[in-house]
Amino acid sequence: MNVQCHSCIGGTNVGEDIRKLDYGQHVVAGTPGRVFDMIRRRSLRTRAIKMLVLDEADEMLNKGFKEQIYDVYRYLPPILEMTNKFMTDPIRILVNGDKQFFVAVEREEWKFDTLCDLYDTLTITQAVIFCNTKRKVDWLTEKMREANFTVSSMHGDMPQKERESIMKEFRSGARYWSLDVPQVSLIINYDLPNNRELYIHRKGVAINFVKNDDIRILRDIEQYYSTQIDEMPMNG
Questions:
Q1: Which residues are listed as membrane-spanning (predicted)?
Q2: Does 93 fall in a domain?
């Protein structure tokens, strides 16, 4: 299949985007801000666009991209309609098939030992571990390195190129972080997400570390997605 594709992502070289788009592309993927910038510069011409796909649209709308998405939408041909102009009364669906468990952890400081126990008990090839703060990500990375785990960290304060490098190494099996990568065998929520709507984006075989005061959050997630998260069996 001879398809020309290009990605327009904030934090990368604008001149390269302009050059690639002027050459002509069948498919353009990108972040809302950079895509709109290319439209505004007339490097991305919208006249012939046949389809607009919003990947994880709910997440983008919740994270404040609504205005940028609408800016892009205004330049599209009239025949392209958004679903009720950014959705009305959306239905939440959690796809069955993913295994979800929780491990009761009485104290925050016991979580790291619980993590080490998991690695001793389970066969884990590659995994993703989520924390709720950048500071904890950095702390956990150092703790795991001290315990001789092969681990890298990634969060929003890192430059785009560094994040891309970590993703590339992870996919090749050299390192340890990503989302929606086929070889990931396990997802560990070291912290339950602060926003229940983020739970759907942490998909896969998931193990949640849950303190006593997190039980309410866990039940809220279950109710929100009409699912059940059972306590992890002692034998794994």
A1: none
A2: no
Q: Under a CB-based contact definition with an 8 Å cutoff, are residues 155 and 166 in contact?
A: no
Note down the domain range covering 56: 5-74
The per-residue pLDDT string of the chain (236 residues; one tens digit each, 9 = 90 and over) reads: 688 999 999 888 999 999 999 988 999 998 888 998 898 898 998 887 887 777 776 666 666 677 777 777 777 776 455 544 555 555 555 555 568 899 999 999 999 999 999 888 887 777 889 999 999 999 999 999 999 998 888 887 777 777 778 777 766 654 433 344 444 568 899 999 888 877 765 556 789 999 999 999 999 988 888 788 899 887 65
Considering the domain boundaries, does residue 85 fall inside one? no
Query: Beta-strand (E) ranges in 85-222?
Result: 100-104, 127-130, 186-189, 206-210
Reduced to 3 states, what is the DSSP secondary structure of residue 206? strand
Please indicate, yes or no, whether residues 132 and 59 belong to a single structural domain of this protein. no
Is residue 178 in some structural domain?
yes
